[in-house]
Amino acid sequence: MRFIIKISSVFLIYNVFLSAQIMVISQNKVVFSKMKEYQDLMEKHWNPVFDKLVDEGKLNEVGSLSHSWGDEWNIVGYYKAKDLASFEKAWSEGYKKFADNTPQNVRNRITAMIIEHKDNIYQIKHSYSK
Questions:
Q1: In angstroms, rounded to a whole number, what is the distance separating the alpha carbons of residues 19 and 22?
Q2: CB under 8 Å to 106, separation ≥6 — which residues?
Q3: Could you tell me the residue ranges of all domains in the chain?
Q4: Element containing residue 122 per DSSP (H, E)
Q5: Residue percentage of the chain with pLDDT more than 90
Q6: How many angstroms separate the CA atoms of 36 and 68, rounded?
Q7: Whose CB among 23, 42, 52, 115 lies 3.0–4.6 Å from 29's, allowing a Cys bridge?
């Protein structure tokens, strides 16, 4: 009986996480002197692809943040989706479109500007805006 309760609990937690709105935070350490070029290339090649996914209802929101004073993670992208499965599907579609439509030399330049990268996936517990 305890085994069934444990399995049910795990399934419930897993199911709640998969069906809860999420925010994916993609943090980058970008070479400081290359931040403007990086942002310009992303604005031209990356943002239109993911903005369209929002327009199509496949993502809830996308955005980017940057700073020149603070910690070393100076450029951050974020993505909101209704759940993890929706994000994964939209991400796969968006990345494929980006790769298909962006010349390899441009993708290489973008990658070369990134010193380090990390992602986090958060379940949104509370959000309020006007």
A1: 9
A2: 41, 45
A3: 21-123
A4: strand 114-123
A5: 77
A6: 11
A7: 115
DSSP bridge pairs for 78: 25, 63
pLDDT tens-digit map of 3-51: 566 555 554 455 555 568 999 999 999 999 999 999 999 999 999 999 9
Contacts of 45 (CB under 8 A, 6+ apart): 98, 101, 102, 106, 110
Beta bridge partners of 76: 27, 65
pLDDT of residue 128: 87
Burial code (b: 16+ CB inside 10 Å, e: under 16) for 4-37 equals: eeeeeeeeeeeeeeeeebbbbebbbbbeeebbee
Q: Residue 34: CA atoms inside 13 Å, Cβ hemisphere, count?
A: 14
The pLDDT value recorded for residue 4 is: 64
